[in-house]
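help with this:

***
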Amino acid sequence: MPDRPPFPGRPAQPPGPTYLQYSPDGQRLIVAGVGNFARSFRTGDNGEPDLLPETHEETYAVASGNDYVILGCEDGTVCEYAVPSGDLRQILVRFTLPIRDIALSPDEKWIAVSSDELPIKLINRDDIEEIFVLSEHPKPIKHLTYDPSGRYLAASCTNGVIYIYSTTTPHPSLFRTIDGVINRLETAETTTSRCVWHPDGRAFACATPTRDIQVISVEDGAHQRVFSGAHNGDITSLAWSPNGALLASSSADDQLVIWETKAQTILKRFNYEKIINLAWQSTGENIFNWTTSQGELFIIPEFLKDEAHVRLLKGPKVRAPFFHDPLDANGRKPLVNGQAKRAGTPDSLDDLVGPEDEYDWIEDDDGAGYINENGKRTNGHLGQVNGHAMKRNKQELWQPHIHEPFQPGATPWRGNRKYLCLNLIGFVWTVDQDTHNTVTVEFYDREMYRDFHFTDPFLYDKACLNENGTLFSCPAKDSQPAMIFYRPHETWTTRSDSRISLPDGEEATCIALSSRYIVAVTNKHYVRVWTLFGTPVRLWRMKSSPSVTCAAWGDFVMTVGNGPVGADGCTQLMYSIDDVRRDENCQNEDVLALGTLPPESSTEEEVSLKALFWSDVGDPCVYDSNGVLLTLLHWRTPGQAKWVPLLDTRLLDRLKNGKKEETYWPVAVAAEKFHCIILKGGDKSPYFPRPLLTEFDFQIPVSRPVEKEGDDDEEETSAEAVVRLEESFVRSSTLLGLVDDLVQGLGDRAGHAQKTEVVKREIEVDKILLQLLAVECREGEERGMKALEIVGLLRDRSGKMLEAAAKVAGRWNRTVLEDKIRDYAERRLMGMDEDS
C-alpha cells in the first residue's frame, strides 16, 4: 500500500501530466497542466492560489521568473504571462508541432524552446526577432536545461544522446555530445531523460536505462559518481536541493528517494504514488513539492524531520560528486595543460610592504601623528580598501606562478578512469574501484607483446611503457612507503619483476624508463637512477626546483624544473641532460624555450609545457600549449643546444579558415612524423574508448604560405614553389643536423650505416637547393643574386653539385649567372671560397 503524505494533495489541474516550477526568489510555485489555466501558489500561504486564466490548453513546459511565467503548449505556442494577474504579455514564438520543453537562461534574457520539430530555438525575451536556431541533433529534443551560469544548454535527444551547446560564443555552438547514458525515449513519455544540473554548475545528473542516476562532468563528459540501487521502475523526475547536498528522485514504481550527495547514500525512502515531477523550495527552505498524474500538487513544509538532514539542506554548498575532484588538487588549477589565472595585484600599502607590526620602531617624538595610542602607525591616509586583505605576511604578498609536475603521456582523471601512459608501444589505463584500482596494459603489436590486467591495491598513479617493460609508481599509503615497480615483457627467471621502496617522506613526482635505466624525480628534488632490476646507479639533486617532469632514452636522462621568475611572474623552465653511463652533463640548466601567446588569444593563461619525450632516434622533443612541436638541436655539445620548431599545429591546412576546431594530444615523434590524438568538442585529453592515432608530417613555420587563387588542382606557381622548397630546405637541414650530431657524438663508435645516412641527407639537401635555384632562374635575370646565394649553400665539396648548378643556369640561358657559378666552383675547389 502506498504511504499517505503528511499533507493532503491540492487540486491544481485536471488529471494528466502536471508541471511545476518555483520562481527564482522562492516566493511562488507555478503549476500548469492539461487545463487552460495555471495556478500560482504563494510560499507559506495556505490560502487559495492565484489563478492565471485563459492560458492555452495542455501545457507541456513551464519556466518562471519572479513576476512572470512562460508556458509552452500543445498548440505550438510559447507565451509569457504576468504573475499574479495572468495577463498575456507576449507570444515569444510559435511552432507547428507541440512544445516539449522550455528553459529560461539564468539571466532571464533567453528562452530555449524544443518541440516535436527538429530544431531548438533560442529567443531573446527583449527582442523576439532575435532568434538562434540549433540543429546539430538529428532527432527532436525531449528536455532542455541551462547550467546555473548560463554557459551551457543541455539537450536530451530522443535518440539517446545528450547534446551540450555552448552559449558563450556570439552564435551558440555544439560543445560536446555524450552518448550511452540516457535512454531513448519519445517526447510524450513520462519517463525522464532530463539533465539536472548540480548547483555548482560543473556536472549534471540524469537517469540511465538501468534506473540508476549518473553524474556527468560537463567539461570532459566523464562519468562521475552513480546513485544506484533504489529504483525498480523507470525514473520520472530528479531534483537537487538548492545547495547541492541532497538529491531527490521519483520513479514509476511509486518510490520517492532522498539521497545524500557526498556519499550517494539513501537518507529517506517514501512510497508515494503517481509522482511525475519534483521540486525543492528554491531558496533552501525545508519545503518539498511534487505533482502527480492526477493533477494534484503536494506541498510538504518541514519535509525533512531529522535534524541532521535539515542541517544538510540548510548547510553550505556541496560540490558535485566527482571520483577525483580537480578542485581537491591543492585547491587550485595546475599550470601545466592550462595555467591558473593570475591573481589581482594588491593595491594598499599594507599589502605591498607587510603587516604593521614591522613598524613598531617608529617613535612619534614630535607629536605629528605618525603613530596612534597603541604605538602603531596610523593608516588614515590609505583610503578605503577594495577587497584585499590588509594584514598578510610578507611571503603571502606575492608568489610566482610555477609549473606543476606532470607525468608525460598521462591524462588527468575523468570520472573513475585515466590513462597512465600513451605512446606508440601501447597504453596503460586504470579504473578507480573505490577500495582498489584495476590496471590494464594493452599493446598495438599483439604478436610481439601480450596484454595483461591486474588488481592494483597500491593505487599506481604513474606509468611508463617501452619495448622492454612497464614501470609503475605509487605514493605512500598508510604505513606503506612510496614504491616503484618494474615488470619486463619477457623473462628467463622465476621472478621477473622488481620493486623499489623510496625513503620515508619521499614520493615520485615523475618517472621515466629507458632501455637501460629506471629514473624517478622525487618530491625532495632528487633524481634517482636505478638499473632495470633495481640496482641504484646515480643520485643527485636538481638545481632547479620544484621539479616538473623527466624523460629517458638509452643512457640519457632529461629533467625539467622551475627556474628563475620571469618578468611575467611565471617561472622559467630549466632543463638538463645527463649521460648516466659516463656520468657527464650534456646540457646544464639551460632554458626550455616556450613561446608566447598569439596576439589573437583572448585567454589570460601563459604558455605551458604539455609533453616531453624522446624521438624514435633519440632526440629530445617538447610540445607546448600553443600547439608547437620543438626538437633540441646540438644537445650533445654543452652550451650549443637550441630549440627548433618542427611543426606548428595551428598552421595546419585542416584548420585554415575555421574548417575544424580541434586540438592535439601529443603521443610521439617517430619516422619523421608527429603522432598525436585529435581532440574535438572541447576535450582537453583523450578518453575512452581509446581514440585512434593520427600522424602529421613535419612542417617548419619558415614563412607565410601563399594563398591559392582558384582551383587547388591548378599548376603550382613560382611563389608557391619557393615557399615549399624553402621550408623543405630548412626542415631537411634540421634533420641532417640531428643525424650529424649523432655521428659526431658517437665518434669512432659510429657505424657505416650512420655515416652513410649523413651523406645521403646532404645530397638530399643539395637537390632541394638545385630545385630552388631552378625556380629563381625561371623567374628572370633580376633574381640572379639570390640564385648565386643559393649556390653558396650547397654542401657538396666534390664539385658535382656546382657543375649541376651551372647547367641549371645554362638551361635557362642565364649566362652571367652560369659564369659566376663556374668561377665560384673553381675558387671552392682551390680552397679559396668565402670561408677562406
